[in-house]
Amino acid sequence: MAKWLFKSEPDDYSYADLERDGRTVWDGVKNNWALKNLREVKKGDQALIYHTGKEKCVAGVAKVVSDPYPDPAADDPKLVVVDVEPTGAWKRPVTLADIKADPDFADFMLVKFSRLSVMPVANEIWRKLEKMGR
């Protein structure tokens, strides 16, 4: 099972919205590198949901419940989506400032490529973030 980080603008769709809805289509990814990553996501993978904008924090975890498939709302076959379900909000959101302040995260893609909206997360990074947030 792979681990990922998915970014969302909380004013558009927040982790609380995902919990309310119970399931959603993760769409809107248009960057080629992020799309390449999204195409590698598999059913059963986990994803950190990261709020961009003013919040800049990991808010919770979702489970990917579908393999990637063509975005039904787009006329572009290159665009793909996955379905996700919430598995739990974190008691303490882990902020980008917290992450940047810790040298263990120096090679984390969120620090190095901050604009990328879908990125893999190494197991050791995931475990440390989870410990910080729960």
Integer-rounded radius of gyration: 14 Å
Principal-axes geometry comes out as globular
Q: Helix proportion of residues, in percent?
A: 25-40%
Query: Structural class of the secondary elements?
Result: alpha+beta
What's the helix and strand layout?
Elements: E1 3-8, H1 15-21, E2 24-26, H2 32-40, E3 46-51, E4 57-64, E5 69-70, E6 80-95, H3 96-101, H4 109-112, E7 118-120, H5 123-133
Parallel strand pairs: 1-3
Antiparallel strand pairs: 1-7, 2-6, 3-4, 4-6, 5-6
Description:
- It is a single chain.
- The chain has 134 residues and is of the alpha+beta class.
- 28% of the residues lie in helices and 33% in strands.
- It contains five helices and seven strands; from the N terminus they run βαβαββββααβα.
- The chain has helices at 15-21, 32-40, 96-101, 109-112, 123-133, and strands spanning 3-8, 24-26, 46-51, 57-64, 69-70, 80-95, 118-120.
- Strands 1, 2, 3, 4, 5, 6 and 7 form a seven-stranded mixed beta sheet that branches.
- A hairpin with a 5-residue loop joins β3 (46-51) and β4 (57-64).
- The longest helix is centred in the last third of the chain and has 11 residues, at 123-133.
- It is globular.
- The two termini are 21 Å apart.
